[in-house]
Amino acid sequence: MARTLRPGYLDEDKHERSKRLEWFDLDKVQNTKVLVVGCGAIGNETVKNLILAGFKKITLVDMDRVVRSNLNRCLFFDDDDAEKKKLKAKVVVEKAKKLEKDLEIEYRSEMIQDLPDDFIPSFDLVLGCLDNVAARLHLNAHCYMHGIPYVDAATLGFVGKVQVVLPPETPCLECGMNKTHLKIMGDRFSCTGVDTTYHEPKLAAEITTTSVVSAIQTRESIKIALGLQSDLMQNVFYYDGMRNVSDILELDENPECPHHMHEKQVSTADRRSSARQG
Q: Which of 108, 101, 86, 99 is nearest to 48 (CA)?
């Protein structure tokens, strides 16, 4: 029996334009369990992008509360949220549901380091939207250990970067850490006295940089959800809005990185075991 087509019927499908992409599979995207850590500027933008792209199973982690300085770059926050100092993650969850009525989204208002060991491995994909070195390294370590794809995003003013960590094929986040990162870690954790605190200065933020970096982070997440591993970035995407340039910076596996040192030890042990059996 012939089907009667009504004018404009194609416009009734929210994802109709995405489905025109021959490689797009909405079911795969909707069934991917995504963990987003950080609900600041990048986190706001990335959650919005994920939902519009079709992701439906999203969990947020952020322990901070909304303040007025968040309002110029976080679309889910408003003045009332800042005045009442609402939890960032809770606000994003409540307002994100307005974008998609069938959204399965929840939040945890704790430090990612304080969550159970089986929390991170319960996801298919992890996104870092953080300005905290310790939390980013925690995500990197646990994702690499459990073989979970991790997409890290960061900005500083007009500069931003995105790195895809696909264990064990790519270098990890720690492979690219330098002495400055280690100094920050040392400053943060060297003091144990209750009367001593470490002040971490606020970083410059710019909304167009956030948009660009979040878009790249979301794009790579879509590739991961669709199993397009061969099309993923293998190095680091670098963006400089002041100079109007973007580039891919090569990143080699650091032989001193603890995650790759473990791989080599396992590989050596396997070879020795095979040699003994032979």
A: 99
CA dihedral 174, 128, 124, 12 (to 10 degrees): -150
DSSP state of 147: T
User: 64-119, pLDDT tens digit by residue?
Assistant: 999 999 999 999 999 999 999 999 999 999 999 999 989 999 999 999 999 999 99
Q: Is 129 a catalytic residue?
A: no
Q: Is residue 15 assigned to a domain?
A: no
What span, in angstroms and rounded, lies between the C-alpha atoms of 46 and 128? 10
Please name the helix (run of DSSP H) or strand (run of DSSP E) that holds residue 27, with its range, or none.
Answer: helix 26-30
CATH code of the domain containing 60: 3.40.50.720
> Residue 44 domain-assigned?
yes
Domain limits at 234?
21-277
Q: Looking at the domain assignment, is residue 16 inside a domain?
A: no
Among 74, 175, 191, 257, the active-site one is: 191
With residues binned 3-state (H G I as helix, E B as strand, rest as coil), the percentages for the chain, rounded to 5, are 45, 15, 40
Sheet containing strand 159-165, edge to edge, reads 104-108, 57-61, 33-37, 125-128, 150-156, 159-165, 236-240, 245-249
Do the beta carbons of residue 203 and residue 159 sit within 8 Å? no
Is residue 250 in a domain?
yes
Q: pTM of this prediction? A: 0.85
Q: Residues 75, 52: contact at Cβ < 8 Å?
A: no
Which pLDDT band holds residue 180 (cuts at 50, 70, 90)?
A: low
Give the H/E segment covering residue 33. strand 33-37
Number of structural domains found in the chain: 1
